[in-house]
Write a structure and sequence with these properties.
This is DMBT1 protein. The protein is mainly β. Helices cover about 0% and strands about 40% of the residues. It starts with 8 loop residues before the first strand and ends in a 22-residue tail after the last strand.
């Protein structure tokens, strides 16, 4: 476990370990939960489809394409739960393949009613 104070800035880094030097990594979705095995019942989205859902979530520049850096402010689930667990989905793409998901950034999908 990693212990932090409320509203403390948390900085995270995800590294891709591969012999293929032509890959890049992108943070697509991150969800927090008070339960390490259930990220659906009680969950808080920090980012979804590359779009920040939390105002404190931010992506940071990385020195290498195979490293993603991001952060957010620490929070709790209404003080009822002692821990917050984080689950992130990352996408791996070919480096400089600008048609790939890694280079699309925030992809917001709006649903509309097809009735009229």
């Amino acid at each position: 476990p990693y212990y932090v104070d409320m509203n403390q800035n948390l900085f995270l880094q995800a590294s891709l370990h591969s012999s293929d030097q032509n890959l890049t990594v992108f943070v697509d979705t991150c969800v927090a939960s008070p339960n390490s095995s259930d990220f659906r019942t009680l969950a808080y989205e920090l980012t979804k489809s590359g779009c920040a859902s939390d105002s404190t979530f931010a992506l940071f520049p990385s020195p290498h394409s195979d490293v993603a850096r991001f952060g957010f402010n620490a929070f709790s689930f209404v003080n009822r739960f002692p821990s917050v667990f984080l689950q992130c989905e990352l996408v791996v793409c070919r480096y400089q393949d600008y048609s790939s998901r890694c280079y699309q950034g925030c992809v917001s999908t709006f649903k509309r009613n097809a009735d009229s």
